[in-house]
Amino acid sequence: MWSIRSTSPRPRPAVVGAVAAAFVFVACGNLPSKEELEAGKNTISCQLAGERLVIRFDAGEARLLMADGERITLYQIPSASGARYSNGTLELRGKSMELQLIRNGIATQLADCQPYAPPK
Questions:
Q1: Which of 7, 8, 83, 87 is at a distance of 20 to 30 A from 70, taking alpha carbons?
Q2: Per residue in 99-115, pLDDT tens?
Q3: For residue 47, how many other CB atoms are within 10 A of its CB?
Q4: How far is it, in rounded angstroms, from Cα 39 to Cα 44?
Q5: Which stretch of DSSP H or E encloses residue 100?
Q6: In sequence order, which residues have a C-beta less than 8 Å from that of residue 15 and are 6 or more positions away?
Q7: Are 53 and 45 in contact (CB under 8 A)?
Q8: What is the distance of C-alpha 4 from the center of its chain?
Q9: In what order do the strands lie in the sheet with 51-58?
Q10: Cα separation of 18 and 92, whole Å?
Q11: d(CA 53, CA 110)
């Protein structure tokens, strides 16, 4: 009777363990941190002229990520009603998910504002 025997060596337990540990490390690297999860609670996305705008609210400021990748920081200023943030050139104001972006004195209503969901 013929027997077929593999000539390739069996993987060593140390190598298998190292590969498994590397896989777990890489896989865990994709999980959001506690800080990222918390930041997501204070982040919304809206439509501005048909393009996505992401806004993160933090202590005393609103950070905007424009569709072209530009990052803009606006600082909270006193308001009699609702939220108001500005950097002297650009202003964001409104209540809840009803927001306007004002540039050069021209107000544009932000559309479809909702809690942030990462793109798929």
A1: 83
A2: 999 999 999 999 999 99
A3: 15
A4: 10
A5: strand 98-103
A6: none
A7: yes
A8: 55
A9: 106-109, 98-103, 90-95, 83-86, 71-76, 61-65, 51-58, 43-48, 111-115
A10: 51
A11: 9
Q: Which two tokens stand for residue 70?
A: 């530009």
Best CA proximity match to 45, nearest among 95, 98, 116: 116
Question: Which helix (H) or strand (E) covers residue 29, if one does?
Answer: helix 13-29
CA distances to 81, 88, 91 from 104, rounded to whole Å, are 22, 10, 9
Query: In which band, very low, low, confident or very high, does the pLDDT at 35 lie, cut at 50, 70 and 90?
Result: low
Q: Look at residue 8 and tell me whether its pLDDT is greater than 50.
A: no
Q: What is the distance between the alpha carbons of residues 5 and 8, in angstroms, rounded to a whole number?
A: 9
Cα 97 to chain centroid distance, Å, stands at: 17
Rounded-to-10 torsion of CA 100, 102, 106, 107: 10
> Is the Cα torsion angle 56, 59, 62, 63 positive or negative in sign?
negative
Domain-wise residue ranges, the chain: 34-115
